Amino acid sequence: MFKLLSKLLLASIGLVSTLADKLLGLNKRDVSTVENIDLTRYAGRWYEIARLPNFFEKADMRDITADYELLPSGEVSVHNSSRRGDGRETEVFGVARVTDESNAKLKVAFAPKFLRVLPFVWGDYWILSIDSQYQWALVGEPGRKFFWILSRQPFMPEDQYEALCEKALEKGFDISKLIRPEQSDG
């Protein structure tokens, strides 16, 4: 019961914070997404190149991947995996739903299926930028609290990484806090 109340309180605080940002004009630039995403091409394995700190990815995580699969229902299955500092493998399974006609705005949930009726278990997953060959992507959300640089390869040339950081900065993300997890050969 305490855990449920804690989650409800956190969700309420997040909602109030978002509304305050909007009302006070603190969120000066809206976050834009790509115009159109082909989810069939987006499906497959992505490697995490960088992220903003968050509560669900621990500091010692490395070899972080996300595997997406388009389901017959139109939803996308999500399988995130990583290796902890002590070598333990971790994984989590979820589902994503498209929320607009561009396919670039999704809601993702990692909660058990029976809890997915609750709106606060769903988080925004917006595809902010992607190259024409679907080899890298910038993913975030409108509050700019979460952000990832993803790649089809476990490594990215430094000049490309810096160019993507510049794109993120232009969209209002604080790139000074980016974490770059270690990746082994894919």
**Helix amount:** 10-25%
The global form is globular
Distance between the termini: 42 Å
User: Mind summarizing the main beta sheet?
Assistant: 8 strands, antiparallel, barrel
Q: What is the name of the CATH superfamily of the largest domain?
A: Calycin beta-barrel core domain
Number of domains: 2
Q: Low-confidence parts, pLDDT < 50 over ≥5 residues?
A: 1-26
Which whole number gives the mean pLDDT? 88
| Strand segment count | 8
Write out the strand line-up for the largest beta sheet, numbering strands in chain order.
Answer: 1-2-3-4-5-6-7-8
Alpha plus pi helix count: 3
CATH names the topology of the largest domain as Lipocalin
Characterization of this structure:
With 186 residues, this protein is α+β, with helices and mostly antiparallel strands. It folds into 2 domains: 1-28; 31-177, Lipocalin (Beta Barrel), CATH 2.40.128. Helix content is 22%, strand content 31%. The protein has helices at residues 2-24, 39-42, 158-170; strands at 44-51, 62-70, 76-83, 89-98, 105-109, 123-130, 136-140, 147-151. Strands 1-2-3-4-5-6-7-8 form an 8-stranded antiparallel β-barrel. It is globular. The N and C termini lie far apart (42 Å). Residues 1-26 have low confidence and may be disordered.
Please describe the topology of this protein.
Layout: H1 2-24, H2 39-42, E1 44-51, E2 62-70, E3 76-83, E4 89-98, E5 105-109, E6 123-130, E7 136-140, E8 147-151, H3 158-170
Antiparallel strand pairs: 1-2, 1-8, 2-3, 3-4, 4-5, 5-6, 6-7, 7-8
